[in-house]
Specification:
- This protein is α/β, with parallel strands linked by helices.
- The protein has one domain (15-268): Purple Acid Phosphatase, chain A, domain 2, CATH 3.60.21.
- The protein is built from 9 helices and 15 strands.
- Strands 1, 4, 5, 13, 14 and 15 form a 6-stranded mixed sheet that branches. A 5-stranded mixed sheet has the order 6-7-10-12-11, with no helix packed on it.
- Strand 4 (52-55), helix 2 (66-78) and strand 5 (82-84) form a beta-alpha-beta unit.
- The longest helix is centred in the middle third of the chain and has 15 residues, at 120-134.
- The radius of gyration is 17 Å and the shape is globular.
- The structure holds manganese (II) ion (MN).
- Residues 58, 87-89, 152, 205 line the site of manganese (II) ion.
């Protein structure tokens, strides 16, 4: 991991920040269409008014078209039209690509299957691009001159602008309290409940039924792969656009339920 990546990104607003895609290409395309994005000539998208797409991370795993989502995101990022705040699933895929011993669970098995079905040359190009972004790039993004933070699992106020191993891990995975639930699962710290910082923090990671502002933070993961929805936050407008999942792509496990997956999303199954 790069020890000193620059988390401050000078790309000016406006932005369209998109929640956890998890391989849901149809919903992503529908959402981008609603937001006014058009195809570029390299397999990515761009906005005619120069808006920037910002992914909150977890592009793949669980959904039906993981390589299609990665390719769209990478082609958009490479052309300068998009940014990524990497999530834990992106990190796990990168570790797989580096030859690390990772468990092929929670949807990674589908992503790896799709990846290995690509022609060798495409595998190499995609692998290089993913590693550059996820391993060498910043673990979260500070945008709009410090007024906006996009971090996959969130961030505590004192961490903003800083990077070290603990902060990088917090931004991608969140933090566990060390306690266990009644069913023996780790409890995640509710950092947003205590957040009193000035920058707006946009995050995902733990699906919730509806995107709501809370202490100047907002969780835009509506659990698309679990049959919920895919959300974009338009910034600085603070308008929300959500498209519904076309179906349930992955049954929510005990872990996701305990992590607060939307009851509405569960009931769709
Ligand atoms: Mn996540």
């Amino acid at each position: 991991m790069n020890d000193n990546p620059n988390v401050s990104n000078g790309t000016p607003p406006p932005y369209d920040i998109v929640g956890d895609v998890h391989g849901c290409i149809d919903e992503l395309r529908e959402l981008l269409n609603e937001l006014g994005y058009v195809d570029n000539d390299k397999g990515g998208v761009r906005h005619p008014a120069g808006r920037t797409l910002v992914f909150v991370g977890d592009l793949a795993d669980r959904g039906p078209a993981n390589m299609a989502v990665w390719k769209l995101a990478l082609a958009s990022i490479e052309s300068g039209a998009a940014l990524l705040a990497p999530g834990n699933h992106d990190n796990k895929f990168a570790r797989y690509l580096m030859g690390r011993n990772v468990q092929h669970t929670h949807g990674l098995e589908g992503t790896v299957r799709e990846y290995r079905a690509l022609p060798q040359r495409e595998q190499k190009a995609l692998s290089r691009a993913v590693l550059r972004l996820v391993v060498d790039g910043p673990p979260y993004l500070v945008l709009d001159n410090g007024n906006l933070v996009v971090a996959h699992a969130g961030l505590e106020a004192w961490m903003i602008g800083k990077v070290n191993k603990r902060i990088s891990s917090f931004a991608r995975y969140g933090e566990q309290t060390g306690e266990l639930t009644a069913t023996g699962l780790p409890v995640r710290r509710d950092w947003a409940n205590a957040y009193r910082g000035k920058p707006l923090i946009v995050y995902g990671h733990t699906p919730v039924a509806t995107p709501e502002f809370r202490n100047n933070t907002i969780n835009i993961d509506q659990g698309c792969a679990f049959g919920g929805g895919l959300t974009a936050l338009r910034y600085p407008e603070r308008e929300l656009v959500t498209v519904s999942a076309r179906r349930v792509y992955a049954p929510p496990s005990m872990v996701e339920r305990s992590a607060g997956l939307a009851p509405a999303a569960v009931e769709i199954g």
